Amino acid sequence: MDHVPGETSPDPATLDVLPDVAPQLRALRRRRGLTLEAAAQRAGLSPAHLSRLETGNRQPSLPMLLGLARIYGTTVSELLGEAPPERDPVVRAGRSEPVEADGWIYRQAGGAGRALQCLRVHVPYATRADIVRVHPGEEWIHVLEGRVRLALGEAVHVLDPGDSAHFDSLTPHRIGAATSGGAELLFVHTLMQSPVAELCLGDGTPHRR
């Protein structure tokens, strides 16, 4: 069987990680009035790849979920079936379960169904292999702990605790910790419909910690 980067085969140990994502992906695509072929093209996937995600034969990576959420005009929380019936303006710390993907650990820090998605993120140490991202929208980061190396185009900035950065994410960018133990930051990005399917998070398959 062929292997597509960013996609993993179901595994008995992880089948309960994203229990609602397959039917949610299909329902949201249909709600947007998109054919399988049109949605796959916008996401940079093959129709067969997207079909496998919608039937649960493959599990999507976290960046793939973020990209599909943008295309469908929703949030990762809704894709995961976690959207509450009513919007609660308060996000309690104890209700935010950490999710890990490729060394990145994130917790939801904002409400579902909003134009902005807010996360609290643990960023792993930066390496030269880190992927440079380019996608429509804006991003804002605020460093809580550690130091963060932010590459924007040809410029490289090192941010200390208390520093922030706000930038157009069409500028090629890369985010990583400048300290070996990683860094903690607040991460806010705009939710936009886009054919570009990646953000600044890790490329691994997400799993609950």
Automatic annotation (TrEMBL):
Query: Record's SUPFAM superfamilies?
Result: lambda repressor-like DNA-binding domains, RmlC-like cupins
Q: Which UniProt keywords apply?
A: DNA-binding
Q: Which residues form a coiled coil?
A: none
Instruction: Please give the name of this protein.
Output: DNA-binding protein
| The species this protein was found in | Streptomyces gardneri
Q: Does the keyword DNA-binding apply?
A: yes
List the top taxonomic levels of the source. Bacteria, Bacillati, Actinomycetota, Actinomycetes, Kitasatosporales
Gene Ontology CC entries for this record = cytosol
Span of domain HTH cro/C1-type: 25-79
Superkingdom field:
Bacteria
Q: Name one GO molecular function term.
A: DNA binding
